[in-house]
Amino acid sequence: MRKTASSFGLRSILTIFAASLLTAVIPATAQKASVLYSFHTSGKDGYAPYAGLVFDGVGNLYGATTTGGVYNGGTVFELSPNQNGGWTRKILHQFTLYGSGGYAPYASLVLDAAGNLYGTTAYGGSVDLGTVFELTPAQGGSWKEKVLYSFGRFNSDGVIPFSGVTFDAAGNLYGTTSRGGAGCFGSGCGAVFELTPTAGGGWKEKILHRFQVKGVDGMSPIGGVILDASGNLYGTTSVGGDPQCAGDGGGLPGCGAVFELSPNADGSWTETLLYAFTINFWDGTYPYSGLVFDKSGNLYGTTFEGGRGGEGTVFELMPQKDGSWDEKIVHAFGEQPGDGSTPYAGVTVDAAGNLYGTTTSYGGYGTGMVFELTPMSGGSWSETLLHRFNGSDGSEPFGGVVLDAGGNLYGTTGSGGPNGGGTVFKIAP
Known about the structure:
By secondary structure, the protein is an all-beta fold. Helix content is about 0%, strand content about 45%. It contains 1 helix and 39 strands. A hairpin with a 5-residue loop joins strand 5 (about 70-80) and strand 6.
């Protein structure tokens, strides 16, 4: 019997997977937050938007809801600014729990140069273990869905992708699956995959790396991957890494890791573990997000737990001349009153090197917040609380934030809001 999308709540998923520089917390007084759209738990527009947002070239926002909609499998939506200063919502696609299509999209979407949207669903497809899909604009304003790949077609394939996909310059897609692969307690420890377009409009999958419980390897990646200029891939795993860091990752050892995959001349890929999170009280544990580069080549991400306050961290990895990477905790949540906790999404970097992100909990009302981290002289960072959600304006932002040219931040909350099903919000400086 196939389960409904709403039964795959993110809290259940997180149950399955399981010397810091002090920062000053500065409450913000000059930020203006507004709800652009509020989802209904009983409406046809979907609800529970766990994914973040993406802009197109003319200022429209695109996102996804994990459940709800006409067929209860989630939706893809567009928000367009209108002449009245508001935003107009349009549903581009309704996912269904039945048939060969996917359902339950958890990750942010990505746009290609032609304006097509690409994303993943955690479930559905030919064997109900997830898909990669494309949405193409058609005549009359409609959009057409195409399933590019259904996971789980063979025994060692990756399954259940919670992350989105990333393009390279040649048009290939890269992503991760949280389970599948081989040699990891039967269900697999996850994989990194590549989808390559073929003649005739098809796509061919290739598994670049299968995570293993043997040795020191990461396991169960929840976040996606990013590319550097040389074509190397970087990402995180939610558990695995240091086997001495025994956590609550659904029976899997380790507290998470950061990895790099480098292409070889023969078409294979070599994995390098850049950092394994430790059980030390100051280090972060369980990174569920992907990574982001700054202009100097440093990597930034978040951990859901750990840190001096025990409520998660923002960390930085800095490349060294000998090829190693040094970790630094940029911010530990939960050390100051009113601070947020348990960041699920990664951070966004602006041109000045400031970091922006969300936490799923606390922040004053226990329902999450939006924060900014600003680099200071001497290597420290200053935190500014840009907005504390209070439930009526949204709750539990699992997605990250995006910036427009004016410095405004946009994101989603997975629940709350005037209609109870989550929101799309804007924070204006």
